[in-house]
């Protein structure tokens, strides 16, 4: 039930050990690009329990990952989407609005943030299509205090053996947590692994592992 999953995510991110929570738990948000100008950063999401991570924690998946514009869930968050060849940003305030910020899942984008003395934080999510993606995104995020780029999370592997093909892909997430009017930004890296039948291409097994979590 979404109530159980959303409460677990809320309590885990706002706990005293957010890094410990993120070292065991995956919270998969949307992957589809958005276009235009979002009317609000606040979204109401639902999540479902998709099983265990390699570390033994829970793998939560967004219920409507193909349509993150839906505002019909239980968990209230500030959401930072991505757009093709675009740069989105949101302003996190020291008071008012949700205490949790989430980005869309990073598979090639970069995220950076800059904070002000009065407690506001601007978080930016950039995607440059074609060619020199990361160098371009490093340039467009040159104003940021801290950044998170594809080279920080895009680990992966491909091995084709006798009858079985192993594929792994690295992804990233950025979360923000507000406590007593102060925002802390966290980065998480995960590895999505699959074993396939080399002849038919059918999926034999899947696993999700957290490869790192820290303050951004």
Question: What distinguishing features does this structure have?
Answer:
mainly beta, seven-stranded mixed sheet, 13% helix
Please describe what this structure looks like.
The chain is mainly beta. The chain has one domain (2-215). It has four helices and 14 strands. It has helices at residues 2-13, 18-22, 133-140, 150-153; strands at 26-28, 42-45, 47-52, 58-62, 75-80, 87-92, 100-103, 110-115, 121-126, 146-148, 156-160, 164-179, 182-197, 203-215. Strands 2, 5, 7, 11, 12, 13 and 14 form a seven-stranded mixed β-sheet that branches. The longest helix has 12 residues, at 2-13. The radius of gyration is 17 Å and the shape is globular. The model has no long low-confidence stretch (mean pLDDT 88).
Structural class: mainly beta
N- to C-terminal distance: 31 Å
Order of helical and strand elements: HHEEEEEEEEEHEHEEEE
**How can the largest sheet be summarized?**
7 strands, mixed
What level of helicity do the residues show? 10-25%
SS field, number of helical segments: 4
Q: Radius of gyration in whole Å, from Cα?
A: 17 Å
Mean pLDDT: 88
The shape, in one word, is globular
Q: Give the amount of beta strand, in percent.
A: over 45%
What's the structural domain tally?
A: 1
Which stretches of 5+ consecutive residues score pLDDT under 50? Answer: none
Number of strands: 14
């Amino acid at each position: 039930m979404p109530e159980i999953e959303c409460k677990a995510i809320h309590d885990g991110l706002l706990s005293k050990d957010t890094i410990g929570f993120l070292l065991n738990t995956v919270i998969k948000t949307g992957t589809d690009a958005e276009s235009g100008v979002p009317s609000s950063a606040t979204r109401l999401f639902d999540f479902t329990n998709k099983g265990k991570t390699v570390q033994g924690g829970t793998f939560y998946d967004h219920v409507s990952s193909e349509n993150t514009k839906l505002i019909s869930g239980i968990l209230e968050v500030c959401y930072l989407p991505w757009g093709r060849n675009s740069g989105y940003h949101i302003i996190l305030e020291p008071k008012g609005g949700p205490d949790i910020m989430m980005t869309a899942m990073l598979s090639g984008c970069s995220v950076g943030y800059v904070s002000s003395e009065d407690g506001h934080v601007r978080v930016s999510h950039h995607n440059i299509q074609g060619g020199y993606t990361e160098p371009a995104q490093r340039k467009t995020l040159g104003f940021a205090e801290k950044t998170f780029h594809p080279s920080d999370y895009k680990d992966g592997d491909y091995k084709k053996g006798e009858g079985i093909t192993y594929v792994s892909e690295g992804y990233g997430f950025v979360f923000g947590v507000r406590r007593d009017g102060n925002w802390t930004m966290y980065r998480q890296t995960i590895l999505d692994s699959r074993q396939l039948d080399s002849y038919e291409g059918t999926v034999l097994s899947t696993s999700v592992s957290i490869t790192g979590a820290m303050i951004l």
